[in-house]
Amino acid sequence: MRQVKDIDAFLKKLHYFDKKFKLFINQNNDHLIVEYPELCGIIDEYSSFIINHDNEKQWNNLDKSIEILPLVENLRSNSSVCIQIMEKHRALVLSHENEEITDYFRNIEDCIEKEFGGFQITSQSKVLLVGSGPFPITLLMIAERTGAEVFGIDIDNEAVQLGKHVVNKLGSQLSIQIDNKTVRELSVIKQITHIIFSSTVSCKYDILDQLYDLTNKDVLIAMRYGNGLKSLFNYPMQEVDEHKWYIKEKTVHPQSVFDVILYQKVQ
Ligand SMILES: C[S@@+](CC[C@H](N)C(=O)[O-])C[C@H]1O[C@@H](n2cnc3c(N)ncnc32)[C@H](O)[C@@H]1O
Asked: What is the position in ligand 1's atom list of the atom closest to the CA of 197?
């Protein structure tokens, strides 16, 4: 009886987030939204929900029936649209506001710290981020802390323009280049030593497959992903072609909104 009640409460919460995300997306005509503090609040609440161990239990007990799957898909894609709105707003107000950093962004910054585990990026590295976003905090942190040459690509041209604006404001002295290009179009791709995938890039495993022929033999891939409850916020891990890529390291970070797998080429 208790279990049914807990699952009911869990489902109710999922519907609550679904409704909130849809509301923000419908209200968002331009990116300077008055509801920004509320949006940050709901994303922070969602981040805490995703990493809450008790909710993991409810998720595991949930019957993943046909009715639940569209809700999960909606939550994943709409939460990622909301993050995009939030990042665009954060990029636009950068020049004239001393903005409080949200728990979500703090969590992402902690994730970046842990990303490559023992595989240190050095000043000799060339790092590519697929899905750099309008507020490319990953690019800035890596370039600043390691001195590496850093590249970002994004399919959203507005995200690319805002990303360049943020880099100009916060890291104009750093070696960071952002482009609206595919991995195939990047002339530097053969020299790239490390590649990071944003977890909200839906076709990240298709791109990983293409990268086998495009990159050098020692390239190291950090794939951000989220399985189980975390798949409400991230695209999950998938099988890879075992003749192309193998898992070098897989670490789960219970307190982070996404986890990371490191892949390397099968030689
Ligand atoms: C907002 S960032 C989110 C960063 C977040 N920390 C993460 O790890 O997912 C995700 C970016 O990926 C971009 N994106 C989505 N699909 C993509 C693709 N196929 N190629 C390049 N960028 C993509 C989106 O436009 C968005 O700007």
From this structure: 8
